[in-house]
Here is the input.
Amino acid sequence: MGIVVQKYGGSSVATAEHIKAVAERIKKAHDAGSSLVVTVSAMGKTTDRLLRLAGEVSREPSPREIDQLLSTGELQSVALLAMALHDRGVAATSLTGPQAGMKTTGRYGSGVISEIRPDRLRGLLDEGQVAIVAGFQGENALGDIMTLGRGGSDTTAVALAAALGAERCEIYTDVDGIYTADPRVVPGARRIPIISSEEMAEMAWRGAKVMHPRAVELGALYGVEIHVRSSFSEEPGTIIREGKKMERLETRETLAGIVHDLDVSRITLSGIRTGPGTMSRIFTPLAEGGVSVDVIVESAPKEGASDVAFTVGRGDYEKALKLAGEVAGSLGGEVEGEEDLGKISAVGTGMLNRPGYAARMFASLGKAGIPIRMVSTSEIQVTCVVPAGRVEEAVRILHEDFELEEMEERDV
Amino acid sequence: MGIVVQKYGGSSVATAEHIKAVAERIKKAHDAGSSLVVTVSAMGKTTDRLLRLAGEVSREPSPREIDQLLSTGELQSVALLAMALHDRGVAATSLTGPQAGMKTTGRYGSGVISEIRPDRLRGLLDEGQVAIVAGFQGENALGDIMTLGRGGSDTTAVALAAALGAERCEIYTDVDGIYTADPRVVPGARRIPIISSEEMAEMAWRGAKVMHPRAVELGALYGVEIHVRSSFSEEPGTIIREGKKMERLETRETLAGIVHDLDVSRITLSGIRTGPGTMSRIFTPLAEGGVSVDVIVESAPKEGASDVAFTVGRGDYEKALKLAGEVAGSLGGEVEGEEDLGKISAVGTGMLNRPGYAARMFASLGKAGIPIRMVSTSEIQVTCVVPAGRVEEAVRILHEDFELEEMEERDV
Here is the structure.
């Protein structure tokens, strides 16, 4: 049997009891003959506790030292998990990111994996050991620890699977897969057994919290099959694999699901003079200020002036409003902000050959009297920004109108 | 000015407030122009907490994984201390043991420093930075983390001072130096301003807890001057430096101090057949069993049989009794154990040319009716094993009879 990479999140290793349960699961897979590489996050609230300490000793902790500090959370989990495996008679060795050959580049706090040198990992697998790798970290060219930033633990797992040519990468989390909509909002939401990497990446970007889009995209790039499963059950979960692109035109007209996000604010620059370079003048300062911009809409110019609107998360709202206000002023226009918005996206490769999906979506929302503030579409998704208070209602309506509950098993 | 190595123990960095206080002290030394290398232990009870977790996931945690786990405590302290220094405008970089070039050999959990490659440390000092090194750890030939075992943090500091040719090594602790006796037992005990490495090593082995003898001996070996000071005061502390050996015979007849230890158990093998190799037959199994033996006394053989007695700490008592019992049986003798003993040692190079010290010690104890169970002497110390309940009384009597309270400043 081939190599399997498993990843367990912080809630799966939150206590000694949790760690023992994870060890049992690993033992089962090991006894069944898999060559296992396991990557683990820090225990439960460890990272929060360490960040609080950092805040107590320093007003503005240096990113390098934050990385040095935070990386210890994962080191503790891997050592404890190795011990729990030994106790069950399973040979296992824990490795720090650097020991596992994870090389990183980029900035402290948001490192990027540049290379994995898996010699030591392969050596352990050859000995029949379970290799347990501290997630979320690697070593840069200076020999310093870097953390990988958002989605770093999922990304570690997928990158390891790619580097080792693993059969699959299993992501264990606190839910049992990807659903056609958030089951807390839509009780009839179905688990999606198989989804394409492209669809999954869109769903992740658009608000599905289960897996980070960065890891999904890395999986797509290297053709890694990802299984999302619950660490607390034996349910089969969701399989994410490369879409069969050549067959797309034959695909049944189906959606993968509806995702939503309640953390949306909109900023509108109105009456600004437009010309070549206007968009760059608006968005370069935002990018330099570290603001993540999501949906962008530009109205058709009228008498040399137009409106540009974009959305950001709550955390970036004040900063974005200030920066956009400065640009708007210099372009003879005004800025306006609106908080408490949300967005709903319908995602699926089935939309590719059916442009009517967007129209059906607008009609469904319109019939319910839900105002659409912004629209953004791409090949495989349609996103509508609506008032936050109407988002859950909108998700339920779309899930029903698109008949996601009744849909048959679909192929990707 | 030269390089100064400072070491702060776990109680000195127990909370964010403590860490900030340590940072202030480092800033002062840095502003005064010293090139500083600082090594720190894990915060307060961190190590205990991690060991408890290990005990919860495993009945017999592997030493390698324990080291991987425990090393994180120091990593957290160094990162937090670096942040606190940045906040005070002091350039500082934290380093793990491996990053600081600490190479180790030996067994996990009791690593020995084999080499220090101080290139990165020197680079930081050349840039005017404070280098903060995680104590108690290094990297073995496999690239694995090893902790240094008992006294490892003090040893890290002294080894760094030796490798860097530092002017001195400052050990900050919760007491303000070495005393002529434990001040909690003898209120009139005096702080010793200067003590020789030899005397300090004896005092440390005989029960003085302030510094670990391993670090003292390393300091003696490399001629590192060690200052023991309180991290909570500005008192001058105690200076440990190489004794002026050539002048010994001229030295005034003085003692350094009286140390005591309440954790002593005695095991006696009586009536055993003696011959060449007997001692080895007794003590080899103990050494292999990891039992630390302290005082050993063999009575003169009578009719081919003799008694051998030795002392061990409470933690090793049961194991030692069992192992010694097996040997005693095979040698035709019996074993007997006695717990609740203690020992008192008078230490000082002044004893070298005054063999009368032992006699005075026996006389003082005898006059007070304190029974002496065992005696051990060396060039610079006399140790008596007495009932634990009489130890403190004995310390007070000897401190007074040897006039340690009135003694003038002494040279070493």
